[in-house]
## 1
Amino acid sequence: KQEVTQIPAALSVPEGENLVLNCSFTDSAIYNLQWFRQDPGKGLTSLLLIQSSQREQTSGRLNASLDKSSGRSTLYIAASQPGDSATYLCAVRETTDSWGKLQFGAGTQVVVTP
Amino acid sequence: SAVISQKPSRDICQRGTSLTIQCQVDSQVTMMFWYRQQPGQSLTLIATANQGSEATYESGFVIDKFPISRPNLTFSTLTVSNMSPEDSSIYLCSARWGETEAFFGQGTRLTVV
């Protein structure tokens, strides 16, 4: 059974520092991996989608890498801002699932202090 | 990006009652998904709703407790039946178009008292 783990569970950094969020998964047979942002009590906002054939994906200050063979993905957020404070979730879609359901990690709660 | 609208956004309900959550997407999609996020926890899939057929439920979730309707390709409902305080959670619907990223609604925050 696929297990998705995110470390650390919580992270507090001063404004301007780079953020590094880790996601690991136990079964490398994934179709893709997606990073989300969730603000308190709200739904999920998609940040980046990495297909299994890709090594990284970039959008603005965000960069996500994927090492499928080792079961790891890392989300980098450059020059953090207080508005980046949120919980960040990673989720994998397995190749065995044709419907596209996702397996989620527990998330990393990020606080960026001014 | 796709737009997924969920309502209500939040509700406070008495135990023993039922609540129906609606999810509307802005373009036709084959598969829709319902997730639950209990306080302080990550998301757990409740069921997959395929238009024109019965929903497929994950282990630990049953149709009598969480009946789902999917009358067309842009709409689905999830009912939380005979609620207890343990059902207090955020409920989220999700959809994916082809092989693109998954999109989520803004969630329904349910408190059962």
## 2
Amino acid sequence: DIQMTQSPSSLSASVGDRVTITCRASQDTSIYVAWYQQKPGKVPKLLIYTASTLQSGVPSRFSGTGSGTDFTLTISSLQPEDVATYYCQRYIRAPWTFGQGTKVEIK
Amino acid sequence: EVQLAESGGGLIQPGGSLRLSCAASGFTVSSTYMSWVRQAPGKGLEWVSLIYYAANTYYADSVRGRFTISRDDSKNTLYLQMNSLRVEDTAVYYCARGVVGVVPLDYWGQGTLVTVSS
């Protein structure tokens, strides 16, 4: 099975902090990684695709980097509305595996 | 405006069958990625199945051989036929679309709950 391993599984940070979430693929996935945000009780929302392309309408404090097997999602200045669970996903050839999620909370 | 609306969820006994539908508007399902993603209660997202172009269909190992993805282009609707349902298939099932070759899942429906229980 192709795995996407996120770390940490949860984090707590202060408003204004820089937050970084990592995702490691068990196989080379080129740049075909996306990041999603899911707020409690809501539908997932696409933030980033092709590892670093910001989806239209997503605030510029979100950014993504990486290629191959290692990827990161960064929130440059954490805001209260960023409380959510974040998922990475590979989408080069099936299966389109998701990471297990990273829950972000405000300290 | 792109919209996706799932239906067909409900309570079903183990071993039973259910067909989910996802009615699309604002775009044509035949020209995009169309996928099903599920989320068990309190758990993370699990990719289930994908269809695009004429006959490209893909499945997660956990559902292969039991679930079938299809679409009706005349109705602009996506389906998921689920057979031999198991308790562990209990989840909210989302349909979602993307741009082939570029964007995975940029629009999602609100989801439909499937509960497999005796």
